[in-house]
Q: What sequence folds into this?
C-alpha cells in the first residue's frame, strides 16, 4: 500500500505530479539500452517482453492507472530478475531496481522501502554468488546509496515542513495576541463610555452625547488598528507597513481610559522614546492589557500605574484593589492567572529577555514587568 498520510506535504515536495512521467521516461531509456544488449540463452521475444513491462507499469502510474505498489513492485522485480538471470556484458537492467528503490523510499512506508532495497541486494548478490552474475558489488552500493540518500532527503524535507508549520503556528499566535490586545482595549474603553452615557442620559443628555461620540471615535480607531494588525498576515510589498504603537503612545492610551471614566494615577519617569520599537510595543500592550483587565474586573477602582526608564531597563508597575470576593482566592476570580491576556503579557516580556509577574499582592492585584529598553541590552 502506498504511503499517503505518512508522507503528507513531504511527498508533495519530493513527488510532484509529473514525477511518474519523468520516471517512465527514464525507464523507457533504460529499457531501450537493455533491449539491444545480447543475452545468450534468453529468446528475443521474451527479452523484449521483460524489457517492455517495467516502463509500461510506470507509464500507467503517470496516466493515473497505477497498480498497487506491492503489485507493481513484484512485477518490476520479477522482470529484472528474469533479465539478470541471463546477464549481458554491460548489464543496465539493475538500474530499474535503482528507480524502484528511489520510489519506495519516498512513497512507500519505511518498512516496505527497506524490504525492496534488501530484496534487490539479495537478488544481485545471490546471483553473483551462484555464478550467474558478475560485478554485483557496484549495484549493491548503488542500491544502498539510493535508499539512504532518498530516505535522508525525505527526513530533511519532513523537518523543514515541521519548522514551517511551527513558524506558521507562532505567527498565528502572534496575530491572535495582537488582536486580543486591541479588541480587549477597544471593548473595555467603549464599555466605560457607554456606561457613562447610560448614567448621564437622563440628567445630562449633552454629556451622554459626548460619551457616545468618544466611544464611536475609539471604536473607529480600534477598528483601524485591527485592520492594520490583520494586514500583517498579507502585507503589500509596494506599500510601507503601518507603524505599530510604541512606548511614547502610553500617555495617550492612559488618557483614553481616563476620558472613559477610569481612575488612573499615572506616573512616568524617564524618556519613553529611548525604548526600541519592539520593547515599546510590548510595554504599550502590557499597559493596555493591564488597564483593560481593571475595567473588566474592577471598573470602579483606582489604578496606580508607574512607568520608569532607568538605564537600559524599563519597569512597569500596575496596582489596583482586588474585589472583596477575590481577596480570599488566588486571583481576580479565585483562580491562578492563566488567561490569554496574562499569558500574552508574560510571553511578550520573556521574548525580549525581560520578566513579568502578575498576581495578588496583599489587597491589590499587581502587575510588574521588567523589560530591556532595546534588544541589544
A:
Amino acid at each position: 500500500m502506498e504511503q499517503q498520510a505518512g508522507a503528507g506535504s513531504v511527498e508533495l515536495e519530493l513527488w510532484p505530479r509529473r514525477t511518474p512521467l519523468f520516471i517512465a521516461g527514464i525507464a523507457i531509456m533504460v529499457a531501450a539500452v537493455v533491449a539491444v544488449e545480447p543475452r545468450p540463452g534468453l529468446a528475443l521475444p521474451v527479452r523484449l517482453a521483460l524489457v517492455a513491462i517495467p516502463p509500461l507499469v510506470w507509464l500507467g502510474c503517470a496516466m493515473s492507472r497505477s497498480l498497487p505498489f506491492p503489485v507493481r513492485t513484484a512485477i518490476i522485480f520479477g522482470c529484472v530478475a528474469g533479465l539478470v538471470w541471463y546477464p549481458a556484458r554491460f548489464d543496465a537492467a539493475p538500474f530499474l531496481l535503482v528507480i524502484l528503490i528511489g520510489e519506495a523510499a519516498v512513497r512507500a512506508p519505511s518498512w516496505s522501502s527497506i524490504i525492496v532495497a534488501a530484496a534487490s541486494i539479495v537478488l544481485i548478490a545471490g546471483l553473483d554468488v551462484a555464478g550467474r552474475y558478475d560485478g554485483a558489488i557496484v549495484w549493491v552500493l548503488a542500491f544502498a546509496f539510493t535508499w539512504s540518500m532518498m530516505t535522508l532527503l525525505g527526513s530533511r524535507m519532513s523537518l523543514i515542513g515541521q519548522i514551517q508549520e511551527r513558524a506558521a503556528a507562532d505567527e498565528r499566535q502572534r496575530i491572535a495576541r495582537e488582536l486580543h490586545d486591541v479588541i480587549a482595549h477597544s471593548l473595555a474603553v467603549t464599555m466605560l463610555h457607554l456606561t457613562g452615557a447610560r448614567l448621564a442620559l437622563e440628567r445630562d443628555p449633552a454629556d451622554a452625547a459626548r460619551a457616545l461620540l468618544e466611544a464611536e471615535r475609539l471604536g473607529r480607531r480600534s477598528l483601524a488598528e485591527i485592520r492594520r494588525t490583520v494586514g500583517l498576515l498579507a502585507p503589500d510589498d509596494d506599500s510601507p507597513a503601518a507603524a505599530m504603537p510604541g512606548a511614547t503612545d502610553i500617555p495617550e492610551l492612559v488618557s483614553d481610559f481616563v476620558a472613559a471614566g477610569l481612575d488612573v494615577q499615572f506616573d512616568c519617569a524617564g524618556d519613553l522614546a529611548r525604548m526600541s520599537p519592539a520593547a515599546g510595543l510590548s510595554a504599550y500592550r502590557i499597559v493596555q492589557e493591564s488597564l483593560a483587565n481593571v475595567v473588566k474586573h474592577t471598573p470602579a477602582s483606582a489604578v496606580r500605574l508607574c512607568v520608569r526608564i532607568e538605564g537600559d531597563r524599563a519597569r512597569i508597575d500596575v496596582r489596583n484593589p482586588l474585589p472583596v470576593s477575590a481577596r480570599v482566592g488566588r486571583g481576580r476570580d479565585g483562580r491562578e492567572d492563566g488567561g490569554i491576556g496574562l499569558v500574552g503579557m508574560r510571553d511578550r516580556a520573556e521574548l525580549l529577555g525581560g520578566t513579568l509577574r502578575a498576581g495578588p499582592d496583599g489587597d491589590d492585584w499587581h502587575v510588574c514587568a521588567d523589560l530591556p529598553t532595546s534588544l541589544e541590552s
User: Anything to note?
Assistant: The two ends are 56 Å apart (CA to CA).
